[in-house]
Specification:
Elements: E1 4-10, H1 17-25, E2 32-37, H2 44-52, E3 59-63, H3 70-83, E4 88-91, H4 103-111, E5 117-121, E6 129-130, H5 134-151, E7 163-166, H6 167-172, H7 183-195, E8 200-204, E9 207-208, H8 219-237
Parallel strand pairs: 1-2, 1-4, 2-3, 5-8, 6-9
Antiparallel strand pairs: 4-7, 5-7
Helix pairs in contact: 5-8, 7-8
């Protein structure tokens, strides 16, 4: 039995899902994986089901009826992880923008007691992003600067989606109150963790843009992040977070 579960949401990731699963299972530390698939038209879940025959005690799958957003997929996975008694729960993308080897760094930070939330950070040591256009780098970087100003969090990469949580964090946060789905979801999780007084540590990583499949970024996700941060801060000020 592994004490670490990697939650990977998928939507049309048929080109990446087998490779990312095998890469995680090839690590020296044993991790389990939960794929949360939003009924992908490209049948991503069928590929995962076929791999479950090979990894019956390590690979788990939840298929939702429709595409419902990244945030709700992670919340679904977090609740499943808590119900199944994992001590360390991870967020990771399916597209290799997050290097599976770095799971060990995040785990070590939390396991050693240095952090309750360990963030795989693109910006804690300069800008460590590969294959993104300059416009996307600037959007992401200054989004974190904006979040820092509004919330007061001293986090360099507030929109990062490569994270390890100690289970106590997810138990303390009311997951049913999480409302956002994209960048704003990542910010909200960090802000709620920060407001609860948990230790947060940024672990430097190199982020590499996907080479297969399509990005899920949209204008609505950016808009949600801009106004969502203000909403979170107002709720905190009125003790409604």
């Amino acid at each position: 039995m592994s004490n670490g579960l990697v939650v990977i949401p998928t939507y049309n990731e048929i080109e990446n899902v087998e490779s990312i699963i095998r890469a995680v299972f090839a690590l020296e530390k044993p991790f389990h994986i939960l794929i949360v698939d939003d009924n992908s038209p490209d049948k991503t879940h069928e590929k995962v089901e076929s791999l479950q025959n090979e990894f019956p005690t390590q690979l788990f799958l939840k298929v939702r009826k429709k595409k419902s957003g990244l945030g709700t997929a992670y919340v679904h996975g977090f609740k499943w992880a808590l119900q199944n008694n994992y001590d360390f729960i991870f967020e990771m993308d399916a597209d290799f923008s997050h290097n599976p080897q770095d799971l060990n760094k995040l785990y070590e930070a939390c396991q050693a007691g240095e952090a309750d939330m360990a963030i795989g950070s693109r910006y804690v040591r300069g800008v460590n992003v590969v294959n993104w256009p300059l416009s996307r780098v600037l959007l992401s970087y200054f989004a974190s600067v904006y979040v820092k100003i509004i919330t007061g969090m001293k986090i360099h990469d507030a929109t990062a989606g490569f994270i390890c949580y100690r289970r106590e964090v997810l138990e303390k946060i009311n997951l049913d109150k999480i409302k956002f789905v994209g960048y704003a979801f990542q910010i909200e999780m960090k802000y709620r963790t920060y407001c609860k007084g948990f230790k947060i540590k940024e672990v430097p990583i190199i982020f590499t843009d996907r080479t297969k499949g399509q990005s899920k970024m949209s204008n609505s996700i950016i808009k949600e992040a801009v106004f969502g941060v203000i909403s979170l801060r107002i709720k905190k000020l009125f003790n409604r977070l």
